[in-house]
Amino acid sequence: MEALLDTQGLLAGYGAAPVLQGVDLTVRAHELWAVLGPNGTGKSTLLRGVLGMLPWTRGTVRLLGRERARWDARELARRVAWVPQTFEPAEGFSGLELVLMGRSPHLGLWGLTSERDVALARAVLEELGVAYLADRPGEELSGGERRMLLLARGLVQEPALLLLDEPTAFLDVAHQVGALARVRARVDSGLGAVAVLHDVNLAAAFATHVLLLRDGRALAQGPVDTVLERERLEALYGLPMEMALAPSGARLFAPRAR
Ligand SMILES: Nc1ncnc2c1ncn2[C@@H]1O[C@H](COP(=O)(O)OP(=O)(O)OP(=O)(O)O)[C@@H](O)[C@H]1O
């Protein structure tokens, strides 16, 4: 199966010194990669580097089999969606209109949305349990409501590859689980996804694979069940950790408080 994303030896940064120091990552359809690591370690930089949004990157980045530099931006936006950490909605747009912006790479010459586009946007809002946001003014929304709209915008884009930067930040626990469950359902149907997360237990529950990133390098990467281990998480965060088995069989990780 052709990789949706393939980076080899990715170096990327903003100033003189690289933040990413040679990351290799291959993501295929049916895979949800969680990227875990301490603050400032390069997780968002990895997503931005993949998308070509940084002052400089070295190494190779291939998206759907083609070098990133050879993609036309609009063509790429039909295949790859990015859900950033935050956004400031321009004034005067409703929740539905903000979500519909995800359809723009698919629209024709005049940029007019069709009934199908609107139906799709409403269906995604419904699926995420936030249909009530459709008619709300974007600038009035809370942090969590904005996050749900960002995710909805990424999903209506109908990408082959979805890149999510902390999609669960600001969400209550029900919306965290709801959002990742919807992403995972699409991954099971053939989407490929990369999600920067801070919650190890959400990664354990929803990811198929994990990349542990520390100081711009991969500490470990691979299938979630083999890579997520207490000792590795201790090395990742520099903190004593505990692991327990829930009655369901799920592994639960927590920092050791004392
Ligand atoms: N626009 C920028 N210009 C210069 N340096 C930056 C810029 N954005 C990020 N950095 C630096 O790059 C490093 C990695 O940042 P990045 O945002 O990738 O970290 P992260 O792992 O996503 O962190 P967090 O978990 O805190 O979101 C940090 O040292 C940060 O200060």
TrEMBL record:
Protein name as catalogued? ABC transporter ATP-binding protein
Q: What does this protein do?
A: Part of the ABC transporter complex HmuTUV involved in hemin import. Responsible for energy coupling to the transport system.
The UniProt entry's coiled-coil ranges are: none
* Source species, domain of life: Bacteria
Tell me the organism. Hyalangium rubrum
Task: Describe the location of the ABC transporter domain by residue ranges.
Answer: 5-240
Q: Name one GO molecular function term.
A: ATP binding
Q: Which InterPro entries does this UniProt record tie to the protein?
A: AAA+_ATPase (IPR003593), ABC_transporter-like_ATP-bd (IPR003439), ABC_transporter-like_CS (IPR017871), P-loop_NTPase (IPR027417)
Cite the Pfam families for this sequence.
ABC_tran
**Claim: rRNA processing is one of the keywords in the record:** no
Q: Which UniProt keywords apply?
A: ATP-binding, Nucleotide-binding, Translocase, Transport
